[in-house]
Amino acid sequence: MRWVRLAVTAMGVALAVTANAQTNDLEALKRQALELYQAAKYADAMPIAERYAEGIKAQHGAEHFEYATALSNLAALYERQGRYSEAEPLFKRALSIVERSLGLDHPAVGNKLDRLALLMKSTDIAVVADNADMLAGLSHAAQSAGRKLDVLVEFDTGSGRN
């Protein structure tokens, strides 16, 4: 019986040491990605930030606030490289996680919304409007966001163009 208790205790210690090592590894990845980000070495930081996000997801789950933060940091790296279409879904996913995990009234939700709004201000949007109602809706949305909406109008003059 004593051997069983010693084995169980040793196994518990080994698991705690493994978990602590994984946490230390994740913290090292986080620091390394931050240092590269601050040095404007965004492309170099990408694979490290991706490994960090996957590690956080494995450790805490896909609905945890820490994973949302890791996704936001990864999105910021995409944004800094002008890869807006890759940044946007990550910012949106992070916002969704924070809304569900902390509630809509939590200040972190506002922070994630601010990041998404900044991304939207950084991008140009091209749209096609095929009727006046759609154009009016787009115009209203652009005006609400404080953005200018450039419109290209094409008329069918009966020349038979498709």
Describe this structure in words.
The protein has 162 residues and is mainly alpha-helical. Helix content is 74%, strand content 0%. It is built from 6 helices and no strands. Helix 1 packs antiparallel against helix 2, helix 2 runs antiparallel to helix 3 (65-80) and helix 3 (65-80) runs antiparallel to helix 4. It starts with a helix and ends in an 18-residue tail after the last helix.
Task: Briefly characterize the structure.
The protein is mostly helical and 162 residues long.
Strand runs, count: 0
Helix content: over 70%
Distance between the termini: 85 Å
Sheet with the most strands? none
- Radius of gyration equals 24 Å
- Strand-pairing-aware structural class: mainly alpha
Shape verdict: elongated
What is the string of helix and strand elements? Answer: HHHHHH
Structure annotation, total helices: 6
Strand content: under 5%
Low-confidence stretches: 13-19
Average of the residue pLDDT scores: 77
